[in-house]
Amino acid sequence: MTQVKLQTNILQANDVIAGKLKEKFKENNVKVINLISSPGAGKTTILEHSLPKLTRKYNVGVIEGDVLTSRDADRIARLNVPVVQIETKGACHLDANMVQKAVEELDLKKLDLVIIENVGNLVCPATFELAEDAKVVILSVAEGSDKPAKYPTIFTRAKACILNKMDLLAYSNFSLDEFYEDIMRINPKLKIFKVSAITENGLEYWLEWLEGMMVDGGQKN
Amino acid sequence: MHELALAQNLLKIVCQAAQENGLLKVTGICIVCGEMMGIVPDALQFGFEVSSVSTVAQGAKLEYKELPALIKCNSCQHQYHWKTYGYSCPQCFHLGGEMVQGYEFYVDYIEGDEKEDGNNDTS
User: Fold this and answer.
1) pLDDT digits (tens, 9 = 90+) for A76-96
2) Over 80: is that where the pLDDT of A202 sits?
């Protein structure tokens, strides 16, 4: 019986590709956001309302991850934003390899920002680095205020959290007190933006934060 | 649900290491996993059993060591368990710190039987 010491990262195949992608983004001066939430929390709707404002200042590309269909990519394409759809055909998350292929279809030289909309899932996408500058988690009040405590990993790894569907707060049992208390315990550094994507209430604070991240990235014409 | 994808990554690493180290059969694999990774050992084991059929690692036993998620207080440097205390230091009550352990996910070692062809030049 022989024992062989390895200490090899099991995610290395993903992380190596993510590392290369990161260099590519850096060379082209492109910032990258990885949007993560449960299905139906409002990732695409937030993009639909954010993109027209972002594109006044920046050149933005979008990568859409879904298990099936190109419906989200179609919604984004209507805004005249370059978009690439990844259909995972069953996989519950995007990995760096899928993103690398999608990036080949974007002209990075002309972009300032790439937003990756991950597959709707609050668990698996947290594990896979996609060469992003920041993970942003979206939670909607309809899902309940206990979600950060139940699915903490993504809330510890994200830099910002958009609390969406605030217009439904009065009709839900979402407790802002419980939510903030749990976040303080789980990740006190997490930036929180209370937003209603459809009324655009609070959207400006999220966009301000995003622009803050863009500052050292510069703009291309 | 992503354990199958992880099991396939794991299998690649194990098979490559077995080949490089002249192992004819892999009997045991020790995996270290941080608490924050949310890996389900049973699902990983199942994914591995399914993917390792007809490889040197078929039938290998997965041993699984979980590392607790630890926060290092950025006031008093005390290290404490995130799951119990969150980011509130139980020693000095400071709120905030860095997670210094909890996102690990690696193969610590593999065990197996060597080839008996006398061509064993590894130490």
Assistant:
1) 999 999 999 999 988 889 999
2) yes
Pairing between β-strand B70-73 and β-strand B79-81 as defined by DSSP bridges: antiparallel
Distance from CA of A157 to the nearest CA of B (A): 10
Domain positions in chain B are 3-67+102-114
The one-letter amino acid at A51? L
Chain B closest-CA separation from residue A134 CA (Å) = 17
Pick the CATH number of B3-67+102-114 from 2.60.40.3140, 3.30.2320.50, 3.40.50.1000, 3.40.50.2300: 3.30.2320.50
Domain residue spans of chain A: 12-212
Q: How far apart are CA A172 and CA A31, in angstroms?
A: 35
Q: Which residues pair with A135 in a beta bridge?
A: A34
For tokens 């510890």, the residue is A156
Cα separation values, A57 from A33, A133, A157, A198, A210, Å:
17, 19, 28, 22, 12
Phi and psi dihedrals of A202, rounded to 5? 80, -5
3-state class (DSSP) for residue A163: strand
Q: Provide the token pair at A154.
A: 């993504």
Q: What interface predicted TM-score (ipTM) does this complex get?
A: 0.85
Fold entry, domain A12-212: Rossmann fold (3.40.50)
pTM (predicted TM-score): 0.90
Q: Best interface-test mutation with A: which of B23, B110, B123 has the largest number of A CBs within 10 A? A: B110
What is the spatial distance between Cα A77 and Cα A70, in angstroms, rounded to a whole number? 10
How far is it, in rounded angstroms, from Cα A190 to Cα A17? 27
Phi and psi torsions of A86, nearest 5°: -105, 120
| Cβ–Cβ pairs < 8 A, chains A and B | 92
For tokens 């099936």, the residue is A68
Element (H, E) at B62: strand B61-67
> What sign does the CA torsion over A114, A117, A123, A125 have?
negative
